[in-house]
Amino acid sequence: MTPPQGADNSGPPATPGELYRRFDRPTRKRFGQHFILDPAILEEIATVADIRSDDRVLEIGPGCGTLTLILLQRGAQVDALEIDRDAVAFLRRHLEPHFPLSIHDGDALVVDLASILETTPLPWKVVANLPYNVGTRILFRLFEYDDHIEEMTLMFQREVADRIVARRGDSEFGALSLMSQLHGEVHRAMTLPPGAFVPPPKVDSAVVQFRLVAGTRIADDEVRRAFVRIVEAAFQMRRKTLANGLKAMGCDKSLVEQKLESLGLRPKVRPQRVGFDEFAELAAALLEEGEVEV
Hints:
This protein is α/β, with parallel strands linked by helices. It is 38% helix and 16% strand.
């Protein structure tokens, strides 16, 4: 392969630390750039993501490419989406000529992800150290492509990760927990302190592993939309009983309490005490009764 004009001809970097030294530029706060340099941590993330030879990987926000390098060294074919144009130019010079890497210049919140994901019928894995200020928004964008994406290994601020992986009865359990469960299996894989990054953020971070289900765990479109509506309504008033929360969206309170009893729940149960399966069954029941518009 002939390197493109301006390519670095000294060969590919051998380690994440070497790659970072070549970058030699201050990180940019507005892009949420916090890089991991420790190869042991990067290898652990790649192991959590189960990256193997010939995997197709979408990486969002590679920055200077320290994690990208580890993914490529494992033999994966990587498409990297980066908003920082200087980082894009750096990756094109130092990594793209030496590895099966495609760099995409753009914002993960607005770029046409289908144009990337539809380039192959093979299932994708997504690996990303997401900017904390837009992490959940990017997550919900990725959920839209569950017919293309098989697994996701994503890093969030720890408090956000706590909400994603929470289960019924946990203090952090809420709409984000249930929406994550709607799209598949989810668990926390790693927790990292600020010192694992350069520069260190002000908060702890956590890696969350998702295994997505194509079409979500609720196959019926109308029931799925009803589920989303009642979950959002329930947790907008999480201190109220579930029946009172759904009453505010127009549901008959006594009917909701009756349906809850039929599911083996107390009529005055609060939403954080109701699990995914019960919310799904409640959504189907209220939809059948005409209590939810979708």
